Every structure is written in C-alpha cells, then in structure tokens.
Amino acid sequence: MQLIIFVLSFLSLSSALPQPFVKRDASTLLATINDLNSAVTELTTAVNSFDGSLLGLLPQALAVVKAEAEVDITILKATHIAETSANYTAAESTEIVETLATQIGPIQDSLNALKTKVCYLACAEHSSC
C-alpha cells in the first residue's frame, strides 16, 4: 500500500514539472484512454478471480490492489495529458469524447463485478444483496 502511495505521489510530482518534450496531441490522449480500457479489464478480471479463500487471499487481494492502482495511474496520466495539451480541434475533441464513451460499459461492468463480489463475500447468507 505504501508503494502505491509513493507511486501516486511521484506521478503527481512529476506532472508538476515542465515537460517540453512530451508529445501533446490527441493521439497520445487516445492511446492513454485505450490503456484505461485495458486497465479496467484487468481490474474486472482480478475482482472476478477473487474468491476469498484463505490460501488465495493475499495474492488475490494484491492483484486487485495492483489493478486498481493501474486504473488510478492511467486516469491521472490521461488527465495530465489533457490538462497540458493545447486546444484540440473539433474533430479531435469528437474522437476523444467518442473514445471515452466506449469506456462507460467496461467501467460499469467492473463496478458491477465489484458490487457482486462484495455482496457474495460479505453477506452470502443474506438474499438482500
């Protein structure tokens, strides 16, 4: 957990430094959004694989934490790219919004998997979940 905090702190610090040689265009942001799709898929897989068994608890929990950290880092990276980029053209903006819209389904699936897993593990004997 401390490693994650360190990495996120480092990312925040590095984003505050001037980066004149970073390519800042729509294709970089679109690639990062596609990386977000992969990270969300990995998070969903890690959550679905988590069974709460005693022997698998630590490795499965670490896999979920690692996947969640990757999602967070990718979101921070995309935000940084968008904030430091010049204004996009109307066509680029449309492409970015359409690409982001494709993320709604996978993110919802990941949240549903997490909700289902929490209900399964926390209140297996209750049918109210």
Characterize the biggest β-sheet.
none
How much helix is in the residues?
over 70%
| Mean pLDDT figure | 79
Query: Helix and strand string, N-terminal first?
Result: HHHHH
Query: What separation lies between the terminal Cα atoms?
Result: 29 Å
**How many β-strands, per DSSP?**
0
- Rg from Cα: 18 Å
Strand % is under 5%
Helix tally equals 5
The coarse overall form would be elongated
Specify the oligomeric state.
Answer: single chain
The class by helix and strand makeup works out as mainly alpha
Give the uncertain stretches in residue-range form. none
Can you give keywords for this protein?
129 residues; mainly alpha
Report on the structure:
- With 129 residues, the protein is an all-alpha fold.
- The chain is built from 5 helices and no strands.
- The protein has helices at 2-16, 26-49, 57-84, 90-101, 104-122.
- The protein is elongated and about 50 Å long.
- It starts with a helix and ends in a 7-residue tail after the last helix.
Put the structure in a nutshell.
The protein is mainly alpha-helical.
Can you lay out the helices and strands and say which pair or pack?
Blueprint: H1 2-16, H2 26-49, H3 57-84, H4 90-101, H5 104-122
Helix pairs in contact: 1-3, 2-3, 2-4, 2-5
